[in-house]
Amino acid sequence: MNKKCLIIRYGELFLKGKNKPDFIKKLVDNLNLAFQKNNLANFRIKKLPDQLIINTENEKDLTALIPILKKIFGISIFYLAYQLESSVESLDNFVKKLFDYYEINFTTFKLSISRNDKNFPKNSSTLQKELGEIIVKKYQLKVNLSNPQKIFYIRIYRDFILVFSERLTGLGGLPVGSSGRALVLLSGGIDSPVAAYQLMKRGLEIVYLHFYQQTEGQTKIFALGEKLKFYNNYSNDIYLVDSRAFLTEIRHISLEKYRLIILKRMFIRYACRLAQELEIKAIVTGDSLAQVASQTLESLGVIQQASITAFEQVEVSTQKVIELGTYEISLKTYADCCALFEPRYPITRPKKEVVEKLEKEIFWEEILEKIILIVLLSSAKTTAKKPGQIGEEETLRIIKNFITTKRYSEQKLEESRKGCPAVVERKGKRGVNHNLILCVRNAEKGAVISHKLIKNVKNVLSLNSSIHSTTKELEELGLSIEELAKQKNASWYLTENLPTDAEEEN
What we know:
Blueprint: E1 3-9, H1 20-37, E2 43-47, E3 51-56, H2 66-69, E4 75-85, H3 88-96, H4 98-101, E5 108-115, H5 124-139, E6 142-143, E7 150-156, E8 160-164, E9 168-172, E10 180-185, H6 191-200, E11 204-212, H7 219-228, E12 238-242, H8 244-250, H9 259-277, E13 282-285, H10 297-304, E14 310-313, H11 318-324, H12 327-331, H13 352-359, H14 364-370, E15 373-376, E16 404-405, H15 410-418, E17 425-426, E18 434-440, H16 471-476, H17 481-485, E19 490-496, H18 501-505
Parallel strand pairs: 5-6, 5-7, 10-11, 10-13, 11-12, 13-14, 16-17
Antiparallel strand pairs: 1-3, 1-4, 2-3, 4-8, 4-9, 7-8, 12-15, 18-19
């Protein structure tokens, strides 16, 4: 019986050597994740050396995969095909009933036949002649080898034959995650989203870092992450940093024209720290050489000298921005941190020694230690180990919102809770270096956990208060970290350097 299937050709990863199976496995994992995220089940993926074959019981479901496959890196081309038995008889019978499978909306055609199985009884030339004659006589069509209106592709393998007529172009590149992870400094502008996309194409899974100066207006940043998540294994993990302490301190720099460069160096330093904590080996920006007056080799070089992590700057094309759909989002008004210190006449050739001298005028190291980090996490998988983490790796990824601090008003906190599966408030305690943050893993009902009811964490799904428990408080409740680690529906980890109550009130 002739079965309909979907064929995926690998593209670039086909050129890999002994590690090619690892890339293919990653692509299959990404496909299965995409099917799961789109509530598509009962698909079977068969791996072959040069392609993947996807089968399902209901062949109509295969067409639902086409828009999904168009957003998965590692695919060169893909197409819907009919899978036949590998015999001359089955091929003849299929061609005789060709237009039971395809509409006759053309007058000229061409057959493109290749044999992977050289033991097949007839060679390609003979098959092209014999099968072409059948089509011409039965359907009164004409052969046109140079400019046909329709091409039928026939690929002959040892165990089956594939027949198809239309090839769709994939994104190419390498499967996301096959090259590791990168931290992208997402500014809210045009360049950084496309820089993220282009690094995804090279097999990097992207985590975003954004520095903000106001608690409102984060919708634009979330929208950019949401737009790109389909290319990034459905992940739009965003780390938000309250940069107001940076901005206040940077005003004490005596030379105004150097303030922006020093601010960016501070951002890079913090990005390096976060990258190390998350075991990420590269930091990415969307800077483009000579795009603006301040983006000279000298300026970019001085800024990057603050980095201790591999640094990547990506050239961005306007066409790619439009294709991604991030252009209109990036144009929306947003209070960008760097815009506050953009001098009227930017310095184009900053001196490293001057920058280092000016940095001594401010307390940037202390600020880095006390920075408030807000986390918006979108998936339940991670390999990152956080400093101070005990036991299992973090398993929870909070969806659609971020961990909030006492600095947010009660109104904002309540607004956050409405659309958030799990909102957790973290708050520093005087004299305590570590706070424990506990989150529900399955929080479909919008759970917020209370430290007063941690004993019942397995059943917590609809509480209305937040947690800011220290290890000492947990001991008073008769709980140990080891006991919490056994809770299967909870994720927990330790965080360091949270602000004290006195600091927050100031």
